Amino acid sequence: MASVVLSEAEKVYIVHGVQEDLRVDGRGCEDYRCAEVETDVVSNTSGSARVKLGHTDILVGVKAEMGMPKLEKPDEGYLEFFVDCSANATPEFEGRGGEELGTEIANTLYRVFSSERSVDLKSLCINPREHCWVLYVDVLLLECGGNLFDAISIAVKAALFNTRIPKVRVLEEEGSKEIELSDDPYDCIRLNVDDVPCIVTLSKIGYRHVVDATLQEEACSLASLLISVTSKGALTSMKKVGKGSLDPESIFEMMETGKRVGKSLHIALQKVLDEEESLGTSRQKVGFLG
């Protein structure tokens, strides 16, 4: 993960500010930076989204392809995650430097989406035991400026919201089954993303914790808690990262903060997605992908 070198004086300044609920950029401990969310930015995908959170820039593309259901879940489709850490994001990702982080992020996403309630995978089934839709979710890190996991989870939810899957019919003729794909690009199904969780990362700094930490704040934190929260405030998974330790009381406080902040995050994200949806093709695209 990208890192920044701070002097001891800078670290003390950041830590003391957090104790007073006043961060370097003027935010409180539970405040997010303004995020830019844009959907339908890549033309050759089933769904896509780009999220910019501070200096963190994430691009997600979803590709729906037909495949065979897994043996243990013959009546469901499934998701596959791939994370590419661009060398442009930080020099540390050059060569094989970003592979370890990419694997860690992908494993975290698998864990977050392991809950049956997160995505209705049964809606991706075409023909039990024979055909289903497989959603390949490709995540590209364009710029790394802190709070990667939260930004990625927001981008993944936005891309899944934007995903259109062609309608198919199973035709039975003379004992054999054939798949007929609709030619109409508007004849498609949409995923229900109401229960798709977002990740809220809480970084312990001194005796307090903050959300949406910058690179400088991450350098002052020895331990963080990654919490995936649904729009209803339900906690679906939790993971500790960092070398430091967290006492039970701190973990409980961070969980409560994560659930509270997570609900607000979902409301704000859904509002933006609904606004973009209502504009349709008249929406003005921004950024270099516009």
Automatic annotation (TrEMBL):
The keyword Zinc does not apply. The keyword rRNA processing applies. Belongs to the RNase PH family. Residues 32-166, 195-260 form the Exoribonuclease phosphorolytic domain. It is found in: Cytoplasm; Nucleus, Nucleolus. SUPFAM superfamilies: Ribonuclease PH domain 2-like, Ribosomal protein S5 domain 2-like. Gene3D superfamilies: GHMP Kinase, N-terminal domain. GO terms for cellular component: cytoplasmic exosome (RNase complex); nuclear exosome (RNase complex); nucleolus. It comes from the Eukaryota. One of its GO terms (molecular function) is mRNA 3'-UTR AU-rich region binding. Its main location: cytoplasm. Keywords: Acetylation, Cytoplasm, Exosome, Nucleus, RNA-binding, rRNA processing. This is Exosome component 7. Component of the RNA exosome core complex (Exo-9), composed of EXOSC1, EXOSC2, EXOSC3, EXOSC4, EXOSC5, EXOSC6, EXOSC7, EXOSC8 and EXOSC9; within the complex interacts with EXOSC2 and EXOSC4. The catalytically inactive RNA exosome core complex (Exo-9) associates with the catalytic subunit EXOSC10/RRP6. Exo-9 may associate with DIS3 to form the nucleolar exosome complex, or DIS3L to form the cytoplasmic exosome complex. Exo-9 is formed by a hexameric base ring consisting of the heterodimers EXOSC4-EXOSC9, EXOSC5-EXOSC8 and EXOSC6-EXOSC7, and a cap ring consisting of EXOSC1, EXOSC2 and EXOSC3. One of its GO terms (biological process) is U4 snRNA 3'-end processing.
